[in-house]
Amino acid sequence: MQPCTSNPVICIVLHSAIIISHMRNGLLHRWDLNPKEAFKLQIELSDRIVRFNHHLSPCFIAGVDVSVARFSKSGRAAVVVLSYPELEVTDIAVSEGEIGFPYVPGLLSFREIPLILEAWKKLRVQPDLIIVDGQGIAHPRRLGIASHLGLLLDVPAIGCAKSRLIGEHGPLADKAGSCSMLMDHDEIIGAVVRTRCSVKPVYVSIGHKIDLPGSISWVLNCCRGLRLPEPTRQAHLAAGGQISLSIRRSSGK
C-alpha cells in the first residue's frame, strides 16, 4: 500500500471512497450456520489467509472490539480509527444489535463479526491496518476473529489478545519488547509479547496479509507505554460506551 498524501483532507476522502469497494469485494458467506457448519467453514477459510507481509505505510490504523456478555443476546461493536504515527482518534463507528450465534469456544467471530461489519460500514475513514482484540491464526483451526475479519474486508489485520487460547511458550523476560514464540506442536502460531515492563503480556498473531514480525512490530509501535495498543484500547472504551461519538462529530472530518 502506498503512503498517503500529506494533505489530511484529501487523504480522508481517498480512503473513504474505497470503503464501499472493500465491503463489496470482500469474501461473503452465510452467517446463519450451526456450530458444526461454522467449524467446517473455518477450516476452509483458513487456507485463504495470507501470512506474508504486504507493504504497509499506514495513514490510519483501526482498533476493533466488541462488548458482549458471554451468554447475552445483544452486543456493541466498535471500530476506532487512529491516525498514524500520531495515534489520534479520527473516526469512531459503533453498532448495537442482537447476537444471533450461540457462545461456542473457538467460534467467536460468528457471534461478533456481523456487528463489526455494520459498524465498519459507518466509517468515513478507511483503515490501512486493523488490530483486533482477539486471536488471529493462534486458533485451533487457524481462523480467529482477526483472521476472519481481515479476510472478509481484504485488509491487513493483526490479532492482539489479552489471553491465550491455545499454544505453549517458553519463559518471557520482564523487559518491555520481550517476546516468546507461541507454539502449537511444531508450528509457530504467534508470539507472547511484553508491551510494558513487568506487566502481563499480550498474545499477538497474524490476522491476514501480514507476517508475524510485522504484527509484533506494529503492536509495539502502537502501545506507547501502555499494555494494550492504542487502537484496541480506544475500541474497548468505545465498545463499553466510554467514548462519546461527539469526538467524531467535533473533528469535522
Q: What would your notes on this structure say?
A:
It is a single chain. Helices cover 31% and strands 23% of the residues. By secondary structure, the protein is of the alpha+beta class. It has one domain: archaeoglobus fulgidus dsm 4304 superfamily (archaeoglobus fulgidus dsm 4304 fold, 2-Layer Sandwich), CATH 3.30.2170. The protein has an eight-stranded mixed sheet with strand order 3-2-1-4-5-8-7-6, sandwiched between helices. The chain is globular. Residues 12-26 and 249-253 have low confidence and may be disordered.
- CATH hierarchy class name: Alpha Beta
Query: Which H/E pattern describes the elements?
Result: HHHEEEHEHEEEEHHH
| Fraction of helical residues | 25-40%
Low-pLDDT regions: 12-26, 249-253
Q: Number of helical runs?
A: 8
Number of domains: 1
Q: How would a textbook summarize the main sheet?
A: 8 strands, mixed
| Principal-axes shape call | globular
Brief sketch in words of this structure:
By secondary structure, this protein is α+β, with helices and mostly antiparallel strands. It is 31% helix and 23% strand.
Tell me the layout of helices and strands.
Blueprint: H1 8-17, H2 19-25, H3 35-46, E1 60-67, E2 74-83, E3 89-98, H4 108-121, E4 129-132, H5 145-153, E5 157-161, E6 179-184, E7 187-193, E8 202-208, H6 212-221, H7 230-239, H8 246-251
Parallel strand pairs: 1-4, 4-5
Antiparallel strand pairs: 1-2, 2-3, 5-8, 6-7, 7-8
